[in-house]
Amino acid sequence: MADFAVQTNNVTRVYQEDSVPVYALRGITLSIERGEFVSVVGPSGSGKSTLLHVIGGLDRPTDGSVTIEDVSLGSLSESELTDVRLFQIGFVFQAYNLIPVLSAVENVEFILQLQGVGKKERRERAQDALRSFGLEELFDRRPADMSGGQQQRVAIARAVVSNPAVLLADEPSANLDSETTKEFCEYLQRVNDDRGVTIVTATHDPLVMGYTNRRVELVDGQIAA
Amino acid sequence: MQLVLQLALRNIWRQRRRNFLVLVAIVLTIGGVFVMNSLSRGMEQDFLSTSIENLQGHIKMLSPKQLDEPGLKHLIANDLVGDGFGIDGVVATTSRLRSPAVVMSERETRGVEIVGIDPISETHSFIQHLELAGEGILNADEPGLLIGQRLAEDLKTSLGRRLVVLLVGPNDEAIETGFRVRGIFKAEIGGYEDAYALTGLRALQKLVGTDAITEVSVYVGDLAQIPDVQAYLATQFPQIDVKSWLELDPFTGEMYTVIGFTIYILIAVFLCTLIFGLINALVTAVLERTREFGMLRAVGMNSRLVVAQVVIECVIIMLSGLVLGIGGGLLVYLWLADGIDLSAFAAGVEAFSMKTRMIPHLVGEDFVIIGLASVLLGLIASYFPARRIIKTSILQSLRDG
Ligand SMILES: Nc1ncnc2c1ncn2[C@@H]1O[C@H](COP(=O)(O)OP(=O)(O)OP(=O)(O)O)[C@@H](O)[C@H]1O
Ligand SMILES: [Mg+2]
Fold first, then answer.
1. Structural domain of residue A56, as residue ranges?
2. What phi-psi label fits residue A76: left (phi over 0), alpha (psi between -120 and 50 degrees) or beta?
3. Which of A29, A52, A54, B172 is 20 to 30 A (C-alpha) from B397?
4. Which CATH number fits the domain that encloses residue A110?
């Protein structure tokens, strides 16, 4: 087994806008070791989100390759890619992470249910995950009855409940105030420290960058020297 | 799958106000279709039974020349009728001798048809449910006359009085006889009351000097058996005309077919209207949830499961609507089961020789058609929003919400 959770090799992503090509990524080569906590930073439009999408199997690169835990995504079918997202990757988006009609426990369980984990086991694991973040009081609450910060914390619990190879978070704190952002980052740090989950987060927020071990800076779709 | 069902149910509940309105629309449409359908079927039934009971039968056997030259000239032998011929499906047969005739009282003269009947075997015509004053025709030897209320009024006669009947005999001879009025009837269809003067079959045979009859009416248990029975009789009695009611009464036959056809068009039109409303509601609902579906797919839910969720939501609403709609329709049906009184339009309905009471009628086959069509259309309706989900990329969905 390699030591890298994520590897990208010369990844390029070109959007064809009215016959004018837009280069979102221009040859990104990046290796992220297991257990790293990486922030991807850079000005707006520099390609941060695009990089995360390509790593997470939500988008396919125009050129180059992406490898998650030794599996090269380029050769996978759509449904195989769906499985990679389900089993290997945890997502935390800026907002709308949770299913509105499900409670916190059910939201966390949802991933395990898709993975085919039995009823009893998944309930226990979901509760454990929430408990380990001190979120017991949210068990039966639906997203509409939680604050933004609470929702994001439940989203982390949901993302890591099945111990994915990498947790991807695109501007997860954009809607949070600095106090909540701090709490949120401490959660991320605990996930990284206690569970050893590899984390890649795109962010503008220096506060968030302060928690990470490594900073990857993008400028115009390229890694800045 | 259990997961998908749970999500579907909860999402239906989340949008309960809108879904309730959609449900109401479905219930009203299906209930309406159901009730209209049962009324149309009732009307169809009415046309049919009116035609059959008008001294017609499902099948009639008569001399080939009888229709061109009605009267006593072209008769058939009486002994060809056994007990229902012993044919499968035949529930009754009856013989009649009938002829155009003139009836005279001291005051008035009217043209009618005099019909000799055997009341014992006359079990399927309008004669068996008449409202009678006097004894009527009790057996085939009865020499008296049973006439309708309207004819009695026209002739200004009454029970027990004598009438003179004038008709042309089998050998073109004029026959003139006196009859005593033994009964006066009221019929559901007023037209019968001035069309017929009834008497005993054997009495009339004796009067005109023949053993023969004009016709045999054959009644079957199930309309579907008519062609077989007709074909069988035609081969058994090649020298006699064997006609179905459709051939004898093409106007009613047409009406019958048209109503049946209209019913299906009606069902189709209503359900299609419903389906467009449903598609509209569903597409809106799915568009609202684009971001949610994007998120579900992003975290690893197979697109097919996401689509299944939408389809199941749609089918659940449709099925509930179907059950409630048919339930509601049944209630209305039971409420109307005694029939709707149309006597206010008596003159109008009589022009169509309909009864003055419209009685709804249920046809099992129509249940199945309405049910299957609704479910099928529910599936078709959910196809459009489902396709939209599949066609939108995950990133697109996440951006759009
Ligand atoms: N679907 C798309 N079609 C066309 N161009 C796109 C699309 N998505 C992104 N781009 C372009 O690719 C470039 C990189 O976009 P990306 O969203 O990755 O930037 P970002 O660094 O995440 O920006 P931000 O900080 O604003 O989130 C931009 O120039 C953007 O306009
Ligand atoms: Mg971005």
1. 4-223
2. beta
3. A29
4. 3.40.50.300
